[in-house]
Amino acid sequence: MVDWTDDRITALSDQDLKNLLTNAERKSVADIVAKCQTELEKRNAAKPRKASKPRSELKEFEHDMSAQLAEIGKEVAGKYDLSEETAKAKSEGVKGFKAHRLLDSKGYAKLGGMQRDGSVAIERYISYRRGDSTAYLGVFLPKDAPAEDHEFHVIAPKAFLEDGKPVADIRPSATEKQKQPADSGLAFKDLPSAAAAFDRALAKLTA
Fold this sequence. Notes:
alpha+beta, 207 residues, 8 helices, five-stranded antiparallel beta sheet
């Protein structure tokens, strides 16, 4: 019978070491099992880990926008009652009502349907629904466009948006299915102006 010293085990190839471990486990040779496991752990620890790929400039921009939108979401949540419980209570009798989570599960802006299906490069947004009305604030970048072409869209019922335009005017590429369930929208080049319009819409929606 081979005397499996530490030196002998260290000299084995990865595959031979695994084979020895399998045999030792089958024969219930505890000391050899322990030595093999220790050596495998050492080798795994020594292997260089694959470095995660750096984000592209566009992905970095999307991540940054998601974080900025989330901060606005947290600010308005501190001003208005945007809880799902209140939304449900105030929407009793509205057929098919489903409360909107303001942010995604990681605390960032949500991923929009048009980005999800690949029809635009970026659509990240925050939104609140009460009754049959929704207020939406998002960043929007058409497909194959440079990041500097992005816009911020506020979409809400016409009664809540001063000078609101038809959603088709600010999103000409959107299909009927992709349009937000509201009858008007505004497009901005800067986030503070969009956030202010979103805030005003929320104030009316939650009044």
